[in-house]
Amino acid sequence: MGKDLKHTTVRLSEDERAGLDKRRKREGGTRSAHIRLAVHRYLNTEPPELSPKVLERLNLLEQALAPLGSNLNQIARRLNQFKADGLNVGDLEDVQGDLLDLFTDMRDEMIEVQDELTEQLRLR
């Protein structure tokens, strides 16, 4: 090992390690050499440019998701307070249904954006 190389531990799944070993045996070299090559390629590859449509949708998703975390924390605090005060939380089932609908819509939108990104990257 050269003086300028530093020891780093990398955790891989069984499938990742098997794939690495298969390629290593086919092409020769050590695991370390193949991992260094993958890191080198990653560091020297520019991320793809996204289309304006995808960037706009990602921006809208980000704007929609940002306040959700805050709202969820507020809701959780209030529900916990209702429970602590011994109040009936059954009246909140409508709110729970509305939240579920909102999250379902957000999930569907994120899946659409993911599909668009996948398609855009595949076309490159």
TrEMBL record:
Is-annotated flag, keyword Thylakoid?
no
Alphabetic keyword roster: Plasmid
Q: Report TM segments.
A: none
Q: Which GO terms describe its biological process?
A: regulation of DNA-templated transcription
Stretch list, region Disordered:
1-29
State the Pfam families in the record. RHH_1 (PF01402)
Signal sequence extent: none
The protein's matches in InterPro entries, at most eight in alphabetical order, are given as: CopG
- Regions of compositional bias (Basic and acidic residues) in chain numbering: 1-21
Q: What is this protein called?
A: Ribbon-helix-helix protein CopG domain-containing protein
Q: Which species does the entry assign this protein to?
A: Desulfovibrio ferrophilus
